Amino acid sequence: MTGTRDTLLKRIWRGQDPFLNYPALLYRQDRQGWGSSHPYLTEAIEALRPSVVVEVGVWKGGSTISLASTMKAMNLDAVVIAVDTWLGAWDHWNNDEWFAHLNFIHGYPALYHTFASNIVGEGLQGHVLPLPLDSVNAAYVLRNYDVQADVIHIDGGHDYGAVMSDLREWWPMLKPGGVLIGDDYPHWPGVKKAFDDFFTEQGRFPFEFEEPKCRIFK
């Protein structure tokens, strides 16, 4: 466990580690995901050597694993705060294939357990701290504890309103010199419009992108 993770664990989780004695063998690992490995993710860790990374929208943890694996390989005192409800979004409920991945048990998604078993199975629990909340409430919690991020990865909702909300909540929580990475750009129209509109307001458009991600340094 890193010192940074331990500090946040004591504040946010009151010292109760959600991965402690986690029964990973009861759940099947499944690394299915989208855009889980991308140069922007590894470059952010290698170049900035962050202590706090926030990922908004985690799914099964593919990109969380990419970020945390690089942290671990570099022996950084760093943590990925993984923000998700693990209940799916409207697009997961409207798509038959994605709906099945929510892994329902008695009418309730068990997707969190897929994520947790992936993290524990990869031995990365010392660099990951889950925060099972929606984006807005998670931002309120972290602001309450004066947590700012060196790197933020936005991979939540795909509609304009959700993405714009994420950007308005999280951009102010990025430290100067940090980087915000967005997923699903530019091929999801709502995602593209939200990023373009928000960063036009910030005077930072156009910005760099390499499908399916974009990045903006602060």
Considering the chains and any ligands shown, give keywords for the structure:
Rossmann fold, two-stranded antiparallel sheet, SAM-dependent_MTases_sf, methyltransferase activity, Methyltransferase, methyltransferase, transferase, single chain, 218 residues
Give an overview in words:
The protein is an alpha/beta fold and 218 residues long. It has one domain (3-15, 36-217): Rossmann fold (3-Layer(aba) Sandwich), CATH 3.40.50. Helix content is 40%, strand content 19%. The protein contains 9 helices and 9 strands. It has helices at residues 3-12, 39-48, 62-73, 90-94, 96-101, 111-121, 135-144, 160-170, 189-201; strands at residues 52-56, 79-83, 104-105, 108-109, 128-131, 149-154, 174-183, 208-210, 213-217. The strands form 2 sheets. Strands 5-2-1-6-7-9-8 form a 7-stranded mixed sheet, with helices on both faces. α2 (39-48) runs parallel beside α3 and α8 (160-170) runs parallel beside α9. The chain is globular. The mean pLDDT is 94. This is Methyltransferase. One of its GO terms (biological process) is methylation.
**DSSP helical segment count:** 9
Structural domain count:
1
**How much of the residues is beta strand, in percent?**
15-25%
Spatial ordering of strands, largest sheet: 5-2-1-6-7-9-8
In the CATH scheme, the class would be Alpha Beta
Share in helix: 40-55%
Topology as a string of helices (H) and strands (E): HHEHEHHEEHEHEHEHEE
The low-confidence runs, each spanning 5 or more residues with pLDDT under 50, are none
CATH superfamily: Vaccinia Virus protein VP39
Beta strands, count: 9
- What class, by secondary structure content? alpha/beta
User: What is the CATH topology classification name?
Assistant: Rossmann fold
Secondary-structure arrangement, i.e. CATH architecture: 3-Layer(aba) Sandwich
Q: Tell me, what's the shape? A: globular
